[in-house]
Specification:
alpha+beta; 46% helix; 5 helices; CBS-domain
């Protein structure tokens, strides 16, 4: 199973934020969309970073409420790991687990075409395992 299958099911909407948005504005954006991270992009759509709930909590722990007035570029993660639609679910799960991050932009031909989360990956993997188990039960029952 590939990342393309996840995007086909969940959609390709990507929530982005500009680098000069405040942390407070970004918090509101995450809450409005009920998501855990947003991709930070420039005006041309180029990925500059990713800002997650974890980044925001770290900034609040360091600076207190003053962090809410800072630009998101000052708290975002700049080393963004991406994947392609051709990557398998197992490959992506391994990279997310090793890198200890939960959101990954999907990039094709230099253009962002979606975002997947560890929740998307785990959900799909569980569905695959359940389907395989059912196929095995049917095979055994008819053998």
């Amino acid at each position: 199973m590939t990342v393309a299958a996840i995007l086909a099911e969940k959609g390709r909407e990507v929530v982005t934020v500009g680098p000069t948005a405040t942390v407070a504005e970004t918090v509101q954006l995450l809450a409005d969309h009920r998501i855990g991270a947003a991709i930070v992009t420039d005006r041309s759509g180029r990925i500059l970073g990713i800002v997650s709930e974890r980044d925001i909590v770290a900034a609040l722990a360091e600076s207190g409420a003053e962090a809410l007035d800072r630009e998101v570029r000052s708290v975002m993660t700049t080393r963004v790991v991406t994947c392609s639609e051709r990557d398998t679910i197992n490959e992506v799960m391994t990279r997310m687990t090793r890198g200890r991050f939960r959101h990954m932009p999907v990039v094709e031909n230099g253009r962002m075409v979606g975002v997947i989360s560890i929740g998307d990956v785990v959900k799909r993997r569980i569905e695959d395992v359940e389907r395989e188990a059912e196929e095995m039960r049917l095979y055994i029952a008819t053998a």
